[in-house]
Amino acid sequence: MTSHTAISSRWSTRLSFMLAATGAAVGLGNIWKFPYIMGENGGAAFIVIYLLCIVALGIPIFIAELLIGRRGRHSPGYAARQLAVESKRHPAWQLTGWVTMFTGFMILTFYVVIAGWAMSYVFKSAQGMFIDANQAAITQLYRGMASSWTEMIIFTAFIVLATAIVVGNGFKQGLERTVRFAMPVMLLLLVGLAFYSSAVGDFAQAADFMFRPDFSEVTATTVLVALGHAFFTLSLASGVMMMYGAYLPASTSILSTSVWIAIADTLVALIAGLVIFPLVFAYGLTPAEGPGLIFQTLPLAFASMPLGVFIGTVFFIMLLLAAFTSAISMVESIATFVVERFDISRWAAALSTCAVLFSLSLLTVFSFAQAPWAQLDVYLFGKQLDNWFDVIEHITSNVLLPLGGLAIALFAGWAVKTQFMQAELNTSARAFKVWQFLVRFVAPVAITLVFLQLTGMLRL
Ligand code: PHE
Ligand code: NA
What we know:
mainly alpha; two-stranded antiparallel ribbon; binds phenylalanine; Transporter; symport; transmembrane; YocR/YhdH-like; symporter activity
């Protein structure tokens, strides 16, 4: 067993931690996924259920990850191993850390490609390619980008390299400085766009859609989709929050910061809805458009609105920043692990991690580019998967995230010595009991239900 020195870097201020964690959480999940699944699952009623899931499941697991990270003071795998040893538990519990790091890395392999799309759209918009374009032209633009592997490789490579540079620069010079600049800019752009969109678009219909719940449409699946998204949107079970917890000063209150980050992430998702839906309704688009909502339909709105070139460009810059701060967060834990394990410089660790990342991202690039070798024909857990992207996305979101979350809840709730967690959480006895009840019982039961549903073993 190699022994590594504990991580000594700490967030400079509580605010810089909050920005970094919010930056990790806020991403493509808030800006395209949340609006579209909300659109498919009954709008306001979905929001209500989703909020309950964030409170009962998301926040407790968020807290668990920060507790494990801060107590462990290593990258997630080693942190989990140390806690297992200290708690005199079976060493297999360390898998909690390793599996979640792996999940984060696999998510990252397609995340950087989609971030590359956002970047490509910044240029498309700025060049005026949306001006006066009709539906067919926009669809062609989107397909042309997705199927051009040269274009996608260039943008993906750029994103990966930028990520390597930020992470290689070291924790304080790179990550902290970047999020401190990027997050406020992103939030400002988003709020500005929401005002603009409300003024230009159909605000009344959007508000009605988002805030007047109609529970008659709610099914068991709605509940399960909301639960799964609560998980994805907070970047849980992907090594991210455990890693960020390792940089937390002992004095920071994990309880209150977790609550604030969950609120911030939720607000961004709601504001994103207020940017997108007034436009969707005003321009006669459909709410349940899926990934295409942003890339295929919003340009249509930008095409005909006043100041469309400017607004469109700003929108995709914002999306790019949101995706980029999430990408950085996923590389951070892997690069830190490589430094600990191989005792090499941070630059070498970041560059080699990103070289592997880039190679694996080609699976997604060529899936969209329809390369014959990237096409598959697999049937897995009740779902038809056509290419490598489908397989990676499906396995991470629907299998590894729920399993990792279950492992974290069980590890923090049952395996790690209660007194360790109690000392880290450092709150009232009653608040601690509530948290413990949620990770011991509520989260495992809920996640098991989601998992069974998604694997098709349960039909509700
Ligand atoms: N939370 C991110 C989003 O909403 C996605 C993500 C998942 C990021 C897991 C990191 C790890 O877009
Ligand atoms: Na999110």
